[in-house]
Design goal:
Strand order of the largest sheet: 6-7-8-3-9-10
CATH superfamily of the largest domain: ABC transporter type 1, transmembrane domain
Distance between the termini: 50 Å
Helix content: 55-70%
Radius of gyration: 35 Å
Structural class: alpha/beta
Number of strands: 10
Largest sheet: 6 strands, mixed
Shape: elongated
Bound molecules: adenosine-5'-diphosphate, magnesium ion
Order of helices and strands: HHHHHHHHHEEEHEEHEHHHHEHEHEEHH
Length: about 600
């Protein structure tokens, strides 16, 4: 998506935002500047001291009584260098760690706030790349680049001052080359940048592809797509190689060219300097030690110029990273609370639960329109009224809109038109945090966090006692599963809970929803991966858990649906039939057909198994 951003221009607004983050470390920056200024001062003073040494010991009147004094000078310089080099490596390292950390935190916070729709549109690989490689790269370039830059500026100014003080006529030669180098590097930078940008784009495709292949590894195997995927990946890698080599060649040309310009400068200084030494120019004479000092300074002079231009080149390279990170940090979640709502209830990261009203559980969809995108509406003028404590079952074909209805109720998405009332008030009048803290939701594809089973249940209610955790597990019959595991509830579930089967994951996430004691409970095909035997067992639990709460259950199995107070048959986003099990059977309509076809099969399955 944002890879398409035009990064050939230097965008100061992006850097201003990054700078704002770094400037929070004022003291670190100030110490870095001081240290680098000292380094530059030493760098500039050393050739001067050298040239003085030559005069004192090898000049016309050598004075050896000064030898210890000069030795001391050099020892002091060496010690100072040691201290300064240690300090700047330490400071830059610290700034790098801080910056990477800060960027990751800011992006992470934003990721927490973004709504479902963002994750629909955005590849996990893309986000991972922002969190890992972009933030690292940016931090590295900023901190070490800053060192180069400060040192470069200080050294350049120091040398120029020394050159002009010593012999301004020769200093002019050096000065004349500065604009040439700056202009050349600015122009050439663009070329390098473009090449670099192409590499990054391919790299992000490769990351995406990796990610796809991890997440879809099993699917790939069952569909025997390995060959196709391999071929696509090989093409991508080939592309990457080609573009990387091209970018490498382009940046390899850069520094030698600068060096050529620099050595032209050194050559000219030689030529004219020697001329001055030999008195070629109207009797203006300099001594050999001054010429050596000049040559020293001239050679030294181009290093900081190159450093500075490299700093800008790297900044431009990193601009793509910076823009992507800033774009992520600045992405506005689609679903946010209004300011007046935040004032009362707080925002997601700083909630004010003391102001939360008790959620009773009356629910009303009032003329709700909804579509995921411009392509069309999934729900059109959808109306539904449910009293608190009612259990509602949604049945219907895949794609008919069942999940959409419950996702709207959870405010993972909001109606495009119309309103959803909870306890008689549009739910947008209260905070997302308020709703979600009263909501238990078990997904079709359960997700557990890396950690133990206990940790995962505690995500539902962080101050739950161990008894509450055990009770929740017992209600959903997960205690049986837990008992079989080596470490009981302290068993690590692995990343995404992948050490457990989907059915087990579902039971744990069910327990996690229940421990919260939510007013609204939503089970979206939550039992689809649980085997029939276990389901019969937890059916009893579901019935118990449903008491006193508004429950929405999306399920295929008759046993889960049959006891619901209200069954809705959903077709193409509309309520086709509504009523209790017996009412709907008596209708002899869609539900009756479904019942006959699907539920009877299920019964037969049960009998066979
Ligand atoms: N995140 C999404 N983005 C775009 N379209 C979606 C998204 N989720 C579901 N849909 C579409 O909305 C319709 C209803 O889907 P859904 O509510 O998931 O059905 P069900 O849960 O009944 O199987 C389907 O046509 C589906 O393709
Ligand atoms: Mg669904």
């Amino acid at each position: 998506m944002d890879d398409e951003l035009d990064v050939s221009k230097f965008s100061s607004s992006v850097w201003k935002k990054i700078l704002k983050i770094i400037l929070k470390q004022k003291w670190l920056l100030i110490s870095m500047m001081l240290v680098m200024a000292c380094v530059a001062l030493l760098d500039v003073l050393t050739p001067y001291l050298m040239s003085k040494t030559i005069v004192v010991f090898f000049g016309e009147n050598p004075d050896f009584s000064l030898k210890y004094q000069y030795l001391l000078y050099f020892v002091i310089i060496a010690v100072l260098y040691m201290i300064l080099i240690f300090s700047f490596i330490y400071l830059a390292g610290k700034l790098e760690v801080y910056t990477a950390d800060k960027l990751r935190q800011e992006t992470f916070v934003r990721l927490q706030e973004l709504s479902f729709s963002y994750y629909d549109k955005t590849q996990a690989g893309w986000i991972m790349a922002r969190l890992t490689s972009d933030s690292r790269k940016l931090a590295e370039i900023i901190s070490w680049g800053m060192i180069d830059f400060i040192w470069g500026l200080a050294t350049m100014s120091g040398i120029l001052v020394m050159l002009y003080i010593t012999f301004w006529r020769l200093a002019l030669i050096v000065t004349a080359l500065v604009p040439i180098i700056l202009i050349f590097s600015t122009l050439y930078r663009k070329v390098m940048l473009n090449a670099q940008r192409k590499v990054r784009k391919t790299n992000s495709q490769i990351t995406g592809s990796f990610n796809e292949s991890f997440l879809g590894a099993k699917t790939t195997k069952t569909l025997v797509l390995e060959d196709k995927q391999n071929k696509e990946f090989t093409d991508l890698c080939f592309d990457m190689k080609k573009k990387s080599v091209r970018a490498a060649v382009k940046s390899a040309i850069f520094f030698p060219t600068i060096l050529i310009i620099a050595y032209i400068g050194v050559g000219l200084t030689y030529r004219f300097g020697a001329g001055f030494v030999m008195g070629e120019f109207a009797g203006l004479i300099i001594t050999a030690d001054v010429l050596f000092l000049f040559l020293d300074y001239t050679t030294m002079f181009f290093e900081p110029v190159m450093n500075i231009s490299r700093f800008f080149a790297e900044l431009q390279q990193a601009q793509a990273s910076a823009e992507r990170i800033v774009s992520l940090i600045e992405t506005k979640p689609d679903i946010v609370d209004r300011d007046d709502v935040i004032k009362i209830y707080g925002d997601i990261l700083n909630p004010k639960p003391e102001n939360y009203e008790k959620l009773i559980g009356d629910i009303e969809f009032n003329h709700v329109d909804f579509g995921y995108n411009e392509k069309g509406l999934i729900l059109k003028d959808f109306n539904l009224k449910v009293k608190a404590g009612t259990s509602v079952a949604l049945v219907g074909a895949t794609g008919s809109g069942k999940s959409t209805i419950v996702n709207l109720l959870c405010r993972f998405y909001e109606p495009t038109k119309g309103e959803i009332l909870i306890d008689g008030k549009d739910y947008r009048n209260r905070s997302i945090g308020w709703l979600h803290s009263n909501l238990g939701y078990v997904l079709q594809t359960p997700h557990l966090f890396n950690g133990s089973i206990k940790d995962n249940v505690l995500y539902g209610k962080k101050d739950a006692t161990i008894e509450e955790v055990m009770e929740a597990l017992r209600i959903v019959r997960a205690d049986e599963v837990v008992k079989k595991l080596d470490d009981g509830i302290d068993t690590q579930v692995g990343e995404g809970g992948n050490k457990l089967s989907i059915g087990e994951k579902q039971l744990i996430s069910f327990a996690r929803a229940i421990v919260k004691d939510p007013s609204i409970l939503i089970l979206d095909e939550a039992t689809s991966s649980i085997d029939t035997e276990t389901e019969v067992l937890i059916q009893d639990a579901i019935n118990k858990v449903m008491k006193g709460r508004t429950t929405f259950i999306v399920a295929h199995r008759l046993s889960t649906i049959i006891n619901s107070d209200l069954i809705l048959v959903i077709m193409d986003g509309e309520i086709k039939e509504a009523g209790t099990h017996s009412e709907l059977l008596a209708l002899k309509g869609e539900y009756y057909n479904l019942y006959k076809n699907q539920f009877i099969n299920e019964k037969m399955d049960n009998m066979i198994s």
